[in-house]
Structure formats: C-alpha cells, structure tokens
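re the bet — no i am not wrong, look at it urself. input seq straight from the record:
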Amino acid sequence: MDKKKKVIIYTDGSSLGNPGPGGWGAVLIYGKYRKEISGGFKLTTNNRMELLAAIEALKALKTDRRSVVQLHTDSSYLVNSLTKGWLEKWQRDKWKKKTKPVPNADLWKQLVRQKNKHNVEFIWVPAHTGIIENERCDKLAKEAAAQDNLPEDKGYVKYGLFDDKGDDDE
C-alpha cells in the first residue's frame, strides 16, 4: 500500500488597524523539512491577509493531489467559508452576496485554484493559545506588516469599498 505524503501547514494573517498595514505568515512542514514564508501590504485587512497566507502557502507546495495537506488556521472566516458551504454559494451566485459583490472575491478565486491542485483539509485552531506553529505564523505576519516600503494590495484598493472588518458570517 502506498503511503501518502503528508504536509502540515500553519497560516496566519494580521492587520495593524483594519484596514491598515497587513502581513501574512506561513509555516510548511514535511517530515524533517520546514519552510517559513511571509509578506505584507501597506493598506489591507486582516481577512485579506488570512486568505493570502493560505494561498501563498499552497502555492509554495511542490506536491500534488496524491499528497495530504493539513492547513491549520485561526481564521474562522476562512474555515467557515470552506466548510459551511458559503464558498460554493458565492460561486453559484456569481460572487454576489444578495446584491453586493462578495468581499475578497479576487482572493477567494485564487484560493479555489490553489486548493484544487492539492488534497487539502482546512483545520481551525484557536488563536493565542500556545500552539507553537500558530504563534510563529502570528509573529511572521506581524513582522511583515511592520516592514517599511510595503507594496500596495491592488485587490484591496480595487475592492476595498466593501465592509471587510472581520465580519465572519456568510
């Protein structure tokens, strides 16, 4: 029997102000190998950074659907959208919520493309409870948000008129 490769990912996003400078961080673990990645933007939201952390972590993988990927995040926005059917509803409704565009649709579309390349299980973890890798991602995200000369989050600038201040419901 062929044993599947297992990759463990932790991600986190942060915004210093919401909106404000933001950052994301991810830790990828495969056996004894470990990789940390992070990035940031000068004006964005925490939810955008949570999504971007997951997107960038999945992009960094060199595996395919035969591998098992466990992505841990403290973002209920991210996990609930995937596990409670919100994402499928938004796709069916052509990225509209009632009459308004879905916030962060640009990133949700990227996440769909990335998750479809892998066999991903999204797992919610509580924030700030001493989970070592989650705490490390939090630190990476905050450090990235605090950098000078951060680039512009073009998606936020384009779509930033929407209310994306931590609203975690569909």
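see?? Confidence is low (pLDDT under 50) at residues 165-170. told u. also Residues 6-159 form a domain with the Nucleotidyltransferase; domain 5 fold (CATH 3.30.420.10). so pay up
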